[in-house]
Amino acid sequence: MASDLDGLAASVLASCGARGLTLATAESCTGGMIAAALTAIAGSSAVFERGYVVYSNLAKQQMLGVPGETLARHGAVSAQTAIAMAEAALARSGATIAVAVTGIAGPGGGTDQKPVGLVHLACARAGRQTLDCAEVFAGDRGAVRDAAARRALEMVLDQASAA
């Protein structure tokens, strides 16, 4: 799995670099895995602007300005929060693409409405509509986090290569 993540990170950097795009990440359940995968590659500083690890609701509010009302009404694990995270990371970083991930990696914390493995992702690009999706990933905590990081990088590739 790690090699998949490494390969995706390299593809993201190459695609963004070829188009003159810069990237920021806003991560909750992945805890910086996406930023780590990107910055493990030599030369990533030409594309990777910065990463926000916003694990708590307070961090989401203080570092990214996610509205408390959004968190109270929809929860930290929601499309609305993921979109707010991505759009704020884009605006605050000055990057041209930002990706956000928030979810329940487990093994606890799930409910009937929001099961363990549920991850909401969003990808914002300057001048474009923000894309979002929800996935329920199977496996243990590590597998969920790895799958979420891979899906986030796939979203960035999609946004970077869109005309």
Q: Can you walk me through this structure?
A:
- 47% of the residues lie in helices and 20% in strands.
- The chain is of the alpha/beta class and 163 residues long.
- Strands 2-1-3-4-5 form a five-stranded mixed sheet, sandwiched between helices.
- Helix 2 links the parallel strand 1 (23-27) and strand 2.
- Helix 1 runs parallel beside helix 6.
- It is globular and about 45 Å long.
- 46% of the residues are buried.
* Basic shape: globular
Please, how many domains?
A: 1
Overall pLDDT score:
96
Low-confidence stretches: none
Helix fraction bin: 40-55%
Termini distance? 30 Å
Q: What is the number of beta strands? A: 5
CATH class: Alpha Beta
The largest pleated sheet is described as: 5 strands, mixed
What is the correct CATH architecture? Alpha-Beta Complex
Strand content: 15-25%
CA-based gyration radius: 14 Å
How is the CATH topology named? Maf protein
Q: Reading side by side through the largest sheet, how are the strands ordered?
A: 2-1-3-4-5
Quick description:
The chain is an alpha/beta fold. It is 47% helix and 20% strand. The mean pLDDT is 96.
What distinguishing features does this structure have?
Maf protein; 163 residues; alpha/beta; five-stranded mixed β-sheet
Break the fold down into its secondary structure elements and pairings.
Layout: H1 2-19, E1 23-27, H2 33-39, E2 48-53, H3 57-64, H4 68-74, H5 79-93, E3 97-103, E4 118-125, E5 131-136, H6 141-161
Parallel strand pairs: 1-2, 1-3
Antiparallel strand pairs: 3-4, 4-5
Helix pairs in contact: 1-6
